[in-house]
Specification:
Blueprint (H helix, E strand, L loop, with lengths): L2 H45 L5 H16 L3 E8 L4 E9 L13 E2 L4 H8 L4 E3 L10 H6 L6 E9 L2 E10 L8 H74 L5 H32 L7 E4 H19 L2 E6 L6 E4 L1 H17 L5 E8 L3 E8 L6 H4 L21 H11 L3 E6 L5 E8 L8 E2 L9 E3 L3 E5 L3 H13 L3 E5 L2 H10 L4 E4 L8 H8 L8 E5 L4 H9 L4 E4 L4 H12 L2 E3 L1 H14 L2 H11 L7 H8 L3 H13 L5
Parallel strand pairs: 7-14, 8-10, 16-17, 16-18, 18-19, 19-20
Antiparallel strand pairs: 1-2, 1-6, 2-3, 4-5, 5-6, 7-9, 10-11, 11-13, 12-13, 15-21
Length: 651
């Protein structure tokens, strides 16, 4: 070959090789730039916050669009369940119209070839739209958008396609290499992960906000419920206190047998109504988590005796034998909440009597190494197996046409209280063979807590000496009841219906005790109590209120009140509290001495022991009489009683 031609050939080949190398270097640089850009964008997705995520996606689409010189970059979601797709993100180059609003709820059936390609995990690549057949559905969609070239890369999660990232070329046609398509596939899949992660975070945040709103609504509803129950309790208890209060007073007025029975019926039904109200409030407290356990020493003999006396007459009237069996090893005292223990036993015994028509009811008290056990067994109608599971459900009632129906809350409350006390309540029963309720308590003793004593059933013998009581009560009927009760036991009574007047009276007059209602026309009773306690010589304050919730009691004690009594109240409950906080109670000596004298004359030893037990602690000045009776020296006791009754000498 001619040397000149060889030189030219070699020279041309060198130029060509240099062009190839330069092209390869440019391609490698572009690939590196693309990898760097995609990595940068994906790292941004990992660090962006939920609030900034949409803005970050749109910015990433813009950077990709500028890199590829695309005119429109967008993200579509597939909804295969509804067979629709939606344009969710979009960036457009200057001068290019947005299609975001126009491409919502697009039927998948309009693009079957497009969708099927993506489902297979492949990109839809159209380098030249004009090359598509005129009748092509894709061309008919793209041409109105002035799209000349298109790349739509699927967003895949495993084998499932969730949507695609699209690149439209509007100004001029654009080609994409295989490498670019593969990198964009990686980007779209990573974008899907970021979108899904932020979608989950958005859903979690939405749920969190919904929970906050729901919690706030529940709290508002709970407050509204508590206020409603408190108001209803007050509105019901206030007139009920009048009914029961006047009934107690009427019962002492020497009525004939017929009217006395009517008054007793009023008392009995009023107390039943009070029990229903208390059960509804108790269940509300349990559901709200407001129940508090107040442990004290409980005298079991006293409590069991109280329970027996409470139901003895009911059992007698139904012709049912009421038996009490207490094992010798049962301690005299246990530590628990006396109110709740007694309420559980009252509910169980009352139910047993209610649904037992003949036979007996046995109350057995036993003890093991770690627990005290009360077993109430009856010979009543029994309960069917499928109903046993519902027995402790609120508002469930076994329907009997011959029985007065309650709230259906007695047993559920008893079950809840037993659990709160650390014990349990179980039932065994069969139809026609009676029922057996077992109530267990942990065996605790606390010698440092004052023992709870039972209340006396009578109040007409109670006397207070030289006690001046200020009654602050706005309801005239309530004023009449308190005035008559207090004056009947020897108190001097001053009345007012206004808190401001009460404050002025305490500044100018001496009182031994203040009975204070909470709801007054001018001031809140709690505020009155707080201001009264600022006085140096403020007497004991007993708040008497139809508000019966624990929080009402707590507010009363925080204000400085010595005691809290909820309406309706038994007269003796009031006098016992007055005695405990004033300690000036004495017994009507003449009436008491007459009873003891008569019992000795009749030789009624049981009555003598009962009277001495009731009155000994309250009458230390009559100690010589009690000592004579203790020594069975009834002759001396009679002589001392005779002298005391005639008032001839101090005993």
């Amino acid at each position: 070959m001619n040397n000149r031609y060889l030189y030219i050939y070699e020279n041309d080949g060198g130029i060509w090789m240099r062009h190839v190398i330069t092209a390869l270097e440019n391609e490698l640089r572009k690939q590196e730039e693309l990898h760097h850009l995609v990595s940068l964008l994906l790292n941004r997705f990992l660090t962006t916050s939920l609030d900034d995520f949409s803005e970050r996606v749109n910015h990433s689409l813009e950077e990709l669009g500028r890199y590829f010189q695309a005119d429109r970059v967008y993200v579509f979601d597939y909804d295969f369940e509804k067979k629709l797709c939606h344009n969710t993100f979009e960036w457009c180059a200057p001068g290019v119209s947005s299609e975001l609003d126009n491409l919502q709820n697009v039927p998948l059936g309009a693009l079957p070839e497009w969708v099927n390609t993506h489902i297979k995990g492949e990109s839809m690549y159209i380098p030249r739209v004009q090359a598509l057949p005129v009748e092509s559905g894709i061309r008919q969609i793209l041409e109105p958008q002035q799209v000349q070239s298109l790349l739509a890369v699927p967003m895949m999660s495993g084998n499932h396609c969730h949507g695609f990232v699209g690149f439209d070329s509007v100004m001029q046609e654009r080609t994409y290499s295989k490498h670019e398509q593969n990198v964009l596939k990686d980007f779209s899949n990573a974008l899907l992960g970021a979108v899904e992660r932020h979608r989950v975070e958005a859903q979690r945040e939405m749920i969190h906000q919904q929970l906050i709103v729901a919690k706030q609504e529940a709290e508002r509803a709970n407050i509204a419920k508590s206020e409603f129950l408190s108001n209803m309790s007050h509105e019901i208890r206030t007139p009920l206190n009048v009914i029961l209060g006047f009934s107690h007073l009427l019962k002492q007025e020497g009525l004939d047998q017929k009217n006395k029975r009517r008054v007793e019926d009023i008392l009995q039904n009023g107390e039943h109504l009070l029990m229903l109200i208390n059960e509804i409030l108790d269940m509300s407290k349990i559901e709200s988590g407001y129940v508090q356990i107040v442990k004290q020493n409980i005298s079991l003999p006293v409590m069991i005796e109280d329970l027996y006396r409470m139901f003895e007459m009911m059992a007698y009237q139904k012709g049912i034998e009421l038996l009490v069996e207490v094992d010798q090893c049962v301690p005299n005292q246990i530590g628990s909440d006396p109110t709740k223990v007694k309420q559980i036993l009252i509910n169980l015994i009352h139910n047993a009597l209610k649904f037992t028509d003949r036979g007996r009811i046995r109350i057995k008290v036993s003890v093991s190494a770690s627990q005290l056990c009360f077993i109430i067994t009856d010979t009543g109608r029994g309960i069917e197996g499928q109903e046993l599971e519902l027995l402790f459900e609120p508002f469930y009632q076994k329907k009997y046409t011959d029985q007065q129906q309650g709230t259906g809350l007695g047993l559920p409350i008893s079950k809840q209280y037993a659990t709160l006390l650390g014990g349990d309540l179980q039932v065994e029963s069969s139809v026609g063979h009676g029922s057996r309720f077992t109530f267990t308590l942990p065996l605790e003793q606390n010698e440092r807590v004052e023992t709870v004593n039972s209340e006396s059933e009578t109040w007409t013998d109670v006397r207070f000496s030289n006690m001046h009581v200020l009654v602050v009560e706005d309801t005239p009927a309530q004023q009449d009841i308190l005035q008559e009760l207090l004056e009947a036991v020897g108190c001097k009574v001053s009345l007012t219906s206004l808190g401001n007047v009460a404050l002025e009276k305490v500044r100018t007059e001496h009182y031994d005790m203040i009975l204070l209602d909470v709801r007054l026309p001018d001031l809140d009773g709690i505020e009155v109590a707080t201001r009264l306690k600022s006085h140096v010589n403020c007497p004991p304050i007993i708040i008497i209120s139809a508000n019966a919730f624990d929080e009402d009691r707590q507010k009363a004690f925080v204000s400085g009140a010595s005691a809290f009594i909820s309406k309706p109240f038994h007269p003796n409950q009031l006098f016992e509290v007055m005695h405990r906080h004033r300690n000036t109670i004495i017994v009507d000596s003449q009436a008491m001495l007459s009873d003891v004298y008569t019992a000795i004359q009749e030789g009624d030893v049981e009555t003598i022991e009962h009277l001495v037990s009731d009155y000994r602690m309250e009458t230390p000045h009559l100690q010589p009489i009690w000592e004579a009776i203790d020594q069975f020296d009834y002759e001396l006791a009679n002589r001392l009683l005779h002298q005391a009754l005639r008032g001839e000498a101090d005993v």
